[in-house]
Design a protein that fits this description.
Layout (H helix, E strand, L loop, with lengths): L10 H23 L27 H19 L2
C-alpha cells in the first residue's frame, strides 16, 4: 500500500493527509497480524510537494516517478527480488 503523498494545501488538508496515513498504517498492521504479506510504500519520504505536484493535490511527472520508485522499493523488499 502506498501512503497518501503530501499535498501542498492548507493546514486542514495537511492534517487530513496525516490522519489518512495513520489509518493506512493501521490497516497494514492489521493485515500483517493476520499473516498477510503486505508492505507500506513510503511515498512521503523524498516527496517534495513544492516541485512534485501539478496542482495542490495531484502529482506531476516527477511526483509520479517518485511514487513509482517508492512502490517498486516496497515490492522488492516484500518479495525479495
Amino acid at each position: 500500500m502506498g501512503l497518501v503523498p503530501p499535498s501542498n494545501g492548507n493546514a486542514e488538508r495537511t492534517k487530513m493527509d496525516e490522519i489518512k496515513r495513520a489509518a493506512q498504517r493501521t490497516v497494514v498492521q492489521a493485515f500483517q497480524s493476520y499473516g498477510y504479506r503486505v508492505a507500506i510504500a513510503d511515498t512521503v519520504a523524498g516527496f517534495d510537494s513544492r516541485t512534485m505536484l501539478a496542482d495542490v493535490v495531484h502529482p506531476n511527472e516527477k511526483g509520479y516517478k517518485a511514487i513509482n520508485n517508492a512502490i517498486r522499493g516496497a515490492l522488492r523488499q516484500l518479495y525479495q527480488f
